[in-house]
TrEMBL record:
InterPro entries assigned: GPCR_Rhodpsn (IPR000276), GPCR_Rhodpsn_7TM (IPR017452), Olfact_rcpt (IPR000725), OR51/52/56-like (IPR050402)
UniProt membrane topology term: Multi-pass membrane protein
Segments traversing the membrane: 28-51, 63-92, 104-122, 143-165, 203-224, 245-268, 274-297
Protein's recorded name: Olfactory receptor
A Pfam family it matches: 7tm_4
Taxonomic superkingdom: Eukaryota
Keyword Transmembrane helix part of the UniProt annotation: yes
């Protein structure tokens, strides 16, 4: 009993997990993951530079894209230190405070991304359904206010997590996490106390953020579709819908992996642990990498500016 009390009172540490059963291959597995990080960081940084320098991109749609790129950089940089440490240097131990800080930022940027995608759907709705008032509705001040409100909402919701975690005892000699980074659902599984409050609060804010945001995005596209179908010319309808393709892709690559991860966590208990890890990798690593690629391919101005930059480097 004394040993148990000692373990509870001490500040616990956690053991991060790479790819169980494939430890010998982890340095090789690090190569594709580091490539994903490089593409994500360079791609999103280039989007920010191009939007800043290209005068024709100083429009609401691209300001929201800049917010998305900043957020994707935050997602990548939140997980990079521990993933790099685990796969390249086999440094698996992380303190409770370090784990909680990483968990805070991963969830903060994930929930903020959901809010930014909702704001981008509002941008598409106004541009298509009320084009004459587009510039007067989505002013720079309102875009900034929407970005700050999205961040503030995520910050307030995630702020409760550290408070709830600090009250939990962790009495196991080895607190082994399921991933190479810290997530709230992973940490509470290792607690030696009732975690129903943590679980219920986590589920509530998932419904409040991801659930509400995805429903509003879906509703905005129903209204957009109604407006597009009212256009007489088939060519104009396709041209109008084409302006939404990049955003629809960004929404799908964010929400589909997230829903898949939730299903695997809840109903895939019999699946190999590697499957859980790969699903989480898809959820956290793929959207920040694909977003700049999609917008670079689909946006003519960004594509041209990128080609100019590449041509300049070659010279």
């Amino acid at each position: 009993m004394d040993n148990l009390r000692t373990n509870i009172s001490d500040s616990p540490s956690f053991i991060l997990t790479g790819f169980p059963g494939l430890e010998a291959m982890e340095p090789w597995l690090a190569i594709p993951l580091l490539l994903l990080y490089a593409i994500s960081i360079v791609g999103n940084a280039l989007i920010l530079v191009i939007v800043k320098e290209e005068q024709s991109l100083h429009q609401p749609m691209y300001y929201f894209l800049s917010l998305l790129s900043v957020n994707d950089l935050g997602v990548s940089l939140s997980t990079l230190p521990t993933v790099l440490a685990v796969l390249c240097f086999h440094a698996r131990e992380i303190s409770f405070e370090g784990c909680m800080a990483q968990m805070f930022f991963i969830h903060l940027f994930s929930w903020t991304e959901s809010g930014i995608l909702l704001a981008m759907s509002l941008d598409r709705y106004v541009a298509i359904c009320n084009p004459l008032r587009y510039a007067t509705i989505l002013t720079n001040a309102r875009i900034l206010a929407m970005g700050l409100a999205t961040l503030f909402r995520s910050f307030l919701l995630i702020l409760v997590f550290p408070l709830l975690l600090q009250r939990l005892p962790f009495c196991h000699p080895r607190n082994v996490l399921s991933h190479a980074y810290c997530l709230h659902v992973d940490m509470i599984k290792l607690a030696c106390a009732d975690v129903s409050l943590n679980s219920h609060y986590g589920l509530s804010i998932v419904l409040l953020t991801f659930g509400l945001d995805s429903a509003l995005i879906f509703l905005s596209y129903i209204m957009i579709l109604r407006s597009v179908l009212a256009i007489a010319s088939r060519e104009e309808r396709l041209k109008t819908l084409n302006t939404c393709v990049s955003h629809i892709c960004a929404v799908l690559i964010f929400y589909v992996p997230m829903v898949s991860v939730s299903i695997v966590h809840r109903f895939g208990g019999s699946l190999p642990h590697v499957v859980h890890i790969l699903m989480s990798v898809l959820y956290l690593f793929v959207p920040p990498m694909l977003n700049p690629i999609i917008y670079s391919i689909k946006t003519k101005e960004i594509r041209r500016r990128l080609q100019k930059m590449i041509f300049r480097v070659k010279l």
